[in-house]
Amino acid sequence: MFASHADKLTFAHGIGGAKDLPVSPELAIAGAVAALTVSFTVLAVAWRNPRYDEATSGRPAPSWLSAVVDSAAWRVGLRVLGFVVFLYAAMAAVLGKDLLTNPFFGMYYVWWWVGLVPASFLLGPVWKAISPVRTINLAFARLSGSDPDEGVFTYPERLGHWPAAVGLFAFVWMELVYPFSTELGPVRLWSAVYVAVMLIGGALFGSTFYERADPFEVYSSLVGKMSVFGRRGQQLVLRSPLANLDTVVVRPGLVAVVAVLFGSTAFDSFKDSSPWVRFVQSTDQSTYLLNNLALLVFCVGVGLVFSLGCVLTGIGDDLRHRELPNRFAHSVVPIVVGYVVAHYLTYLVEVGQQTLIQASDPFSDGSNYLGTADLTVNYGLSYHPTFLATTKVLAVVLGHVLGVVAAHDRAVRVLPKRHQLTGQLPLLVAMVAFTVGGLYLLFAA
């Protein structure tokens, strides 16, 4: 991926490693483990009953805000905005030159993939509101006189979010492993396949397909549960992020989704770490093969560690054991958000600005269509390494603490009384392992 330089873009997602993090790694890891342990202890003493209830949590949003958000003009405006950006990116992809200065790369890897997280965190499920594939499906339905929410078939419940997990893995594979991820042809093809699959799925299964199988809508909707905006029925309400997070619908494949999101971010740090680079250079095996295996191991490993932490609760019959990982998977969402902030903050801010500058010249011919070509990138974050280091460590630690709180509230609701505390210990151990591993990678990359 890109590193931010005005004259040249190099594709490297790394967070810069210890040279950018003037904080003792031992102190950061010890502090994080202590924070998790203290948080769990406090929760065990003071949080004996579930506090989040979708039917009662939150208060109605101001009437003026509800009127704006629920208006047809607002919904149409967002659809138009999303579709205009989509058409502009498609124009750069189809007619632009195969150069790293083509803004399509930044729109694809930075604005779309990374930018989706802060946008959803602040505003809710943004992709659902602006998705161009939903807009195209809606237009086809209007032209044919059909209902865009209804498809030819009923979406199989057993599929759940598994297609979204596969789609997310396909994206991170393209981004992190595929050796030609900075060439226009493969990225353009990936995008075309995504649009085609989404349109076919929408035609067959209606809007349910997007809610459960669109990798970007599922991702955006999960992160959007960390915002303060939610719904009680059709009413817009303001909730605490954790109360909103508790409303995540439990479906098959939810663990797979969060495992891919978390595992791929961890792998992105790991592949630039000194131990992995030395290992790859010392072996005769193909680097491409090793990176493929490592990405798969990270994603599957996260899912297995989390699932194991959930099922080792001794609660009774096997059916309940199998249900627990998906029922607790929402608690990984704050951890994912924390790692995205820690890993991609500089990348999003600096390369995001660079993409806006390049967007004025989609054909690399010196044009300035948007009037942004003469802007310069502000590298303020990179010039303040202590602030950057503190922000990254705090993001990881806070994400895990919020994850522990979310898991505890779910535990006191679904676990038998005698297992509400002891049953959480394996999951706490798993989260401590995630914290230690994540901070190690943060410093080692």
From TrEMBL:
Keyword Nucleus: no
Keywords, sorted A to Z: Membrane, Transmembrane, Transmembrane helix
Membrane-spanning intervals of the chain: 27-47, 76-96, 108-127, 162-181, 187-210, 248-267, 293-316, 328-346, 387-405, 425-443
Protein name: Uncharacterized protein
Source organism of this protein record: Nocardioides ginsengisegetis
